[in-house]
Specification:
The structure is a single chain. The protein has helices spanning 9-32, 50-63, 80-83, 128-141, 160-168, 183-198, 228-236, 248-256, 260-263, 268-286, and strands at 35-42, 68-72, 92-95, 98-100, 102-103, 109-112, 147-153, 174-179, 203-214, 220-221, 240-246. By secondary structure, it is an alpha/beta fold. The protein has a single domain (35-286), classed as Rossmann fold.
């Protein structure tokens, strides 16, 4: 009998791609088994301080004694390394398929595309399929070790990056949705909540950032509006986890890459950040 005909090269190449994807997804599933709670931080709108909330929550959870990692999947505008004090560091490649994340203050582990670029000015000019492949590789090959929490900082919107994370991290604990107290923000943020609901992902709660400004005399001023966080929580039946006030020193701490609540522990924003971590931990850990 003659030899069985081999499939053409393009078919063999496609088979190899599919085999690699299956292998990566299996590794993702194994990696995620070593992490108790996987939480994505989401917002439909840019400029609401989502990455600040992610970084602050990570530091606050670590300050409570939890083992924490942050995965930054904002491919085009990564800011987590800068905010968490690891800008310029590089993850260590232990093997072609094992990457060790860098370590930020309080022992938080961090992985981001920004840690792999030549410099901060280098843009990432990728279409959706390339971004999906890169995120899959990060999830498969990053060696987080044993963690209590993995926070995933997502870019604004409900596109490729968000869909990829929700589909690949199949036992995702849930998402936190960040907004500011303006009706324009609410108009866009409801799309993020609907995105989570349509994909069967639990919305753990709402964080209203830049909620108000406290003057030296103690008076509050609602610069961007008032009540949006409460409205969203009520309409969707989810908790309002925090209302973080405006504080000019937040920008300074983010630029320096230090935990805001440690540098300015007596500020209202610091107290609200710590309360956010306590409320979240109480909620998800009570569920096991």
């Amino acid at each position: 009998m003659g030899q069985q005909a081999q499939p053409p090269p393009y078919v063999r190449a496609r088979i190899e791609v599919l085999r690699k994807i299956r292998e990566q997804e299996q590794r993702i599933a194994e990696n995620m088994k070593r992490i108790r709670y996987k939480i994505a931080v989401l917002s439909g709108k840019g400029g609401v301080g989502k990455s600040f909330v992610t970084a602050s929550l990570a530091f606050a959870l670590a300050n409570m004694g939890r083992r924490v990692g942050v995965l930054d999947v904002d491919i085009h505008g990564p800011s987590i390394p800068k905010m968490m004090g690891v800008e310029g560091q590089q993850p260590e490649a232990k093997a072609p398929d094992r990457i060790v994340p860098v370590t930020a203050p309080l022992g938080v582990k961090v992985m981001s595309i920004a840690l792999m670029l030549p410099d901060a000015r280098t843009p990432v000019i990728w279409r959706g399929p390339v971004k999906t492949s890169f995120i899959r590789e990060l999830l498969a090959y990053t060696d987080w070790g044993e963690l209590d929490y993995l926070l995933v900082d997502l870019p604004p919107g409900t596109g490729d990056e968000q869909l990829t994370v929700v589909q690949l991290v199949r036992n995702l604990t849930g998402v936190i949705v960040v907004t500011i107290p303006s009706q324009v923000s609410k108009y866009v943020v409801v799309k993020a909540i609907s995105f989570a609901e349509k994909l069967g992902t639990r919305v753990l709660g709402i964080v209203e950032n830049m909620s108000y400004f406290v003057c030296p005399d103690g008076s509050r001023h609602y610069i961007f509006g008032q009540g949006v966080g409460e409205e969203l929580a009520r309409e969707y039946g989810v908790p309002l986890l925090a209302r973080i006030p405006l504080d000019p020193r937040i920008s300074r701490a983010a630029d320096e890459g230090v935990p805001f609540f440690l540098k300015y522990p007596d500020s209202p924003a610091a107290r609200e950040i710590l309360e956010l971590a306590r409320r979240l931990a109480s909620s998800v850990e009570a569920d096991g």
